[in-house]
Amino acid sequence: MSASPPSTWYVDFFTELPNEFWRRAVPPEVTVDEIDFVERRLGLAPGSLILDVPCGSGRHSVELARRGHRVTGVDLSAEAIGHARRATAGLEVELVRADMRDIPRDNGFDAVVCLGNSFGYLELDGLRELAAALGGAVRPGGGLVVDFASAAESILPGYRAEPRTMRTGDITVLATGEYDVAGSRLLSHYRFTRGEEELDVTAIHHVYTVAQIVDLLSGNGFTDVELFGGPDGGPYGVGSGRLLLTARRTS
Known about the structure:
The protein contains eight helices and eleven strands. The chain has helices at 10-13, 16-25, 28-42, 59-66, 78-87, 124-137, 152-155, 210-218; strands at 49-52, 70-75, 93-97, 109-114, 138-148, 164-168, 171-180, 185-194, 197-206, 222-228, 243-249.
C-alpha cells in the first residue's frame, strides 16, 4: 500500500485544478435532477431557508436560489467559495468559508442538503461531530438529504481497483484506487494534467455501513429515514452505486 495522506487531506485537496475538473464533469441536468429530488422528498415550501454544506463551487446553491429558496452555503475551499460567489451573484445566497462542522446550530434551517459524498471525508469522531452539527442546524420538522457513495453496501460488493482515465476539455485525470482493509477506507489517487500543469493528490473516503449512518443521525434528532438509490427515487440496495438518504428532524 502506498503512503497514506493525512486524515485532514480535504483541507488542501480542493484547489483550482481538481475543482475545475469536477465543475466541468457534472452536466447541468444532473444538478436539476438532484434538486428536483430534494424539493420532492422534503416537500419544500417556496422561500425555504436551506443550508448547503459543503457547498463546493455552488452548483446546488445556485439551483436552489434560482427556485426561490434562501440559501446559506458553507465550504472549506477558498477557491470553491470564490467561484460560488461569482456564480451566485444576484441570487439570495450567503456563502461562508468554514469547516462543514462549523455551521449554525440554532435550529434555524428548514432543510440541510449534504450532497457530493462528503460524509466519507471524516473519520468516525469527525462524523459524529458533523451529525451533531446537522441536528443543531435543522428546525424541528425540517428535513435532511445526505448523498453518500461510499457506504459499505455500495463499495464492497465486487470491489475492484481498476485504473481509469477521465477527460473534460483540456483536463485529463488518471485515477487509481485501493481499499485499506484495516482502516475501512478507500484511497483514491489522482493525477490531474492540463497542458504542462500536473498535480498528484489523494483523497480518503471512509467507508461506513448504512446502519452506522442511520444510527448517528437518529441519535441527533432525525427520524423517518428513507433510502434511495438515486434522484429518480429508486430503491437503495446492496451494490447500488449511490445512497441518497432523507430524514426529518422531529426532536
